[in-house]
Every structure is written in C-alpha cells, then in structure tokens.
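Table 4 source record.
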Amino acid sequence: MTTKKQTILELGPMDAAIILRADGTLEAALPELDMESLPENIVTSAALMFALQSPKMYDLIHENFIQECATMDLDSANDD
C-alpha cells in the first residue's frame, strides 16, 4: 500500500513554482506581472513550462541531461 503524502509550500509574491506530477501533468504557480517588470526567475519558469510541454524541447533537455551526467566524474566528487 502506498501512503499519500501532502506537502504544503509557501510562495512569496515574486516566487514561481513548477510541479511535475507522477501522472505526467504539470502545474505552475507564477505571479501576475506586467511585461515591463519580468524578473529572471519568472522568465526562466515560463521558459521551462514551455519547454516541458514541447516534445521536441523536452527530448533535447532530457538528452542533454543524460549526456552531461555521463561525462561527470562522480567518483572524484566523494574524495574529500
């Protein structure tokens, strides 16, 4: 049996959040702003939402992530 866990996050007036649900759906919380005052975090969040909803962009992000992970030297990261 799987226990359902609910998490409550508090967002500030200029915060943005993207939720990736297990069923593949997306949910976003973005503040309403005029076009002249868009902070970088809001632009980045909107770009990520666009990319995640575009199969071509999603595949490019996924492929690049896999390539970057493959080139990381994870063994040396634990050598302190």
